[in-house]
Predict the structure.
Amino acid sequence: MCTCRSHRWSALFGLPLEDATHSCLSGELPLGRRDWLAAVGSAAAWVMASPSLAATKLYGTPVQYDFVSSGVVKGSQTTIQMPDGSLDVRYEFIDRGRGPKLRSTIRCDETGFISSLHTTGYNYLKVAVNERFTFRNGTASWQNSVEQQTHRNASPRFYISMEGTPEEGAIMVRAALRAQNASLPLWPSGLTKVVAVKTIAVGNGRASTRVTMYEASGLDFAPVNLWLDENNELFMSGISWGAVIRSGWSSVLAQLLDAQNERVAELGRQLARSLPQRFGTAIAVTNVSLFDSQRGVIVPDATVVFHGDTIASVGASDAAVPRDARRIDGTNKTLLPGLWNMHMHTFAGFGPRLLAEGVTTIRDPGNNPEYIAKTKAQFESGELIGPRVIIAGLVDGTGKYTAPIGATTATVDEAIEHVRMYKKLGAVQIKIYSSIDPKLVPTIVKEAHAQGMRVSGHIPAGMLAQDAVHEGFDEIQHVNFLFLNFMPDTMNFTQTPIRLTATAERAGTIDLQSQPVKDFIALLKSKEIVSDPTVGIFYTDTLTRTGDLASTGFAEIAGWLPVQVSRTLTTGGLPLGPGLDGKYRASAQAYLDMVALLHANGIRIVAGTDDVLPGFDLIHELELYAQAGIRNAQVLQAATIVPARVMHMDDTLGSLDPGKLADAIVVHGNPLEEISQLRNVGTTIKGGVMYDTRALYASCGVRATPV
Ligand SMILES: [Zn+2]
Ligand SMILES: [Zn+2]
């Protein structure tokens, strides 16, 4: 969430992709690294964009749109049809200092495909944009911030801009409506299919018109919605975070967004009716290699029977298998407890992807309180598909860098009140955030412990990790705070991005064999502190290089992803200043070394990801633990029995023992030999309900390799 971490800026038609806009951040957007550090690019982009706008002569009639966010007009789109048939599109909005300013010239051919496009200006994070596409005489070529490609003898495809405007969504829908099956092959890859969902009449008091909601698949994990008017011109494109709508019609925006949200909810309910496989009988996995998470060993040729929502038996033969049981042949497969992701800021739409990854329990360490309580209930009731949810309530102080969850905590009374509010909501843990006043920490810890809740968190600005341990923290989130313990010069500024940049630049210079580090580790051990290192996010942030897929850690599954998600994978990462490459690489190794050191000293590690790429990132996190040198069996324990014990839920979860809840995954191959084998989860069982993981992935536009 937000300043926990960096976030890649991935946009489609001028608006953020789904993952970038969880509900916890409605009206907010995760702050990108580049945000803080791209001031130079910003100034350059202004100079490029502004004079050319002023110099242009306007032909035709401009069609005017407002950009509306939280009920306030914060920008505009203007589309002008030029005499030569091309479109001149200007798009800009301002969102607390961020926001794009783009100008596109777009030509379409007679089939409605884009034949040339040129976009200049800067994007949401104020990074300069200069994107071009042409398709001429069978040659498609384009360049943007990440790609530079030429394809000769190519058949026509529709080009999706890296940094486009809402207008391009309408151009795409119009092209699709003229194409066979309303489907379009896309540059750089993939396919979109457009369907008309519904047409409704709207009125603004002066006029009325009919507008149609379209839905385009294949671009993002969820279908993208867009509204056209009776002339097939753009009417509205957006989400509650922000939307463009025809000027003069913002009074109907809420109605259109409601219709979209209802559609999203209906699609979610449809999945919840079609994907779960419920058998009125037992499920038996026979002749399987069973991962005994308590002992960290494989038990060969086991047979496990699930009945109802619990594990009925675990045995060496199928003697206990009821005759009418649904059997799964476990030959050459491994049966493991359902996986845990201990750091996932949840969005309801993540549900199917998380189960597809094998994750049956998540801990949410910071979200809008009402939203997370509602989502947890929807997953539990089966209204929506998703894992079990454990709530850790986030408390943060005031100031410029406060987490966008609603309430802030500034007084002793508020501290007590907010802990009790979370307790009522069902939270079992409090997560302290970076801007909390250190003077309030003892109150929060005392009240949380009195309520039987755990306490974890960021280390608040003004404190070091060792101080937080002495104040009664049970757990420290994020590996960077362990390094910051040895950078006291940053102590008063860690509510700012310094907590990310200082560690990226200096973690590699900390001697992990030094006496101060040894003393600190001994302190963590003596207080039985748990670490939720989310090492993957720090590792990829320091190593991701623009345009280099291998550097992201997700090369193996990039081809599975919807086009706009996969091509923006390499846009994350910290900006590379002079001399930083080597420092970043040293720090990336230091993160892994720290994880290995914690583990070697008996400090419990729980696997969490902080939403690097929900549905794919837990396995990457586990791969990094293995890369750090932790044995695979113990890596798997960090995502099964260890989190269950830490959360005091090991009486029902975390291992495959009779009487425990029926949460398990069937993996083709053996992840004890190679952690990456976890990508071959074929079946996920949660509470005795079975899911085909490939069908789960397909439901969100992910084309996983069959297992
Ligand atoms: Zn965090
Ligand atoms: Zn987080």
The longest helix spans residues 253-274. Confidence is low (pLDDT under 50) at residues 1-7, 22-58. The first strand starts at residue 11 and ends at 12.
